[in-house]
Amino acid sequence: MQALEIIPEGAYGGSPYAAEPAKAGSGRRAFRGPHPRSFMADPGGSLSGTIRAFSGNLCWGRADPQALIDLIRRHEVDVFAAQELGPETAEAIAGELPFGALEPSATHAFQGMGVALRRPGVFSQIPLPFRPARRVRLEPAEWPELGRSLDLINVHFQAPHSLRPFPSFWLRRRQVVALEQSLDAEPGLARVVMGDFNATPTWPLYRRLARRFDDAVLECAQRDQRAVQATWGPRAEGARYLRIDHVMVDGPRIERVETIRIPGSDHSGLLCEIRDEAAGAGAGVGVG
Q1: Structural domains in the chain plus CATH codes
Q2: How far is the C-alpha of 85 from the C-alpha of 104, rounded, in Å?
């Protein structure tokens, strides 16, 4: 059985989870390592025909590992896109979702990222300046909810107040341009881009991406006639004031988005249910 890979920080040869690092832009299917503890709530996929994807910034790895385990089990998460991933939070996620790749950092946890999956997918990096995006490609053969390939992209854009690298506004623009170039190199794919954008809907980075993607959180809120919720606040236990975490979509339909507190993190996470309407028409249907 192919298992999730935890790529140790600076120690690709010395860990029982170790494997050669994924090369930027190259895809690899799942990764060998010790067989993880696995809570297979629904091995055959969601009964509703949706894929449940969760995105969460784990606050320099300070999020409560047991709370993450409980969250994955309670919501039957199929895909976990993590930002600011530390070793303990990576181990917790890996114990529940046995496929994908996690790249935690113990010394610079704001750089740690990864995507963990309930079923196999092809993992790769999208080379962005300073911090690559992580991508998994889900195929209908492994994910019967899909009628075509689906790219799920995990992003963590540089914070606008960061002093290094400086100036941050120039780095953020270069990151968006690099992402757009990668997307343009493979036009017509169904995509979900989720993560910490470090941008509210009024900021240029968000507005630029909103020109080519639909904001799933906003669309679901409008459909349900409810207000959107902020996702970030200065204290883990405090109120949330800014909506800087997003789910952007091109192709599939997002049935529902829920904003969920992550104990120990200053961000709330986003849980979305992805439905591919092409699945009803058979595999291989292109993006409409």
Answers
A1: 5-17+37-281 (3.60.10.10)
A2: 5
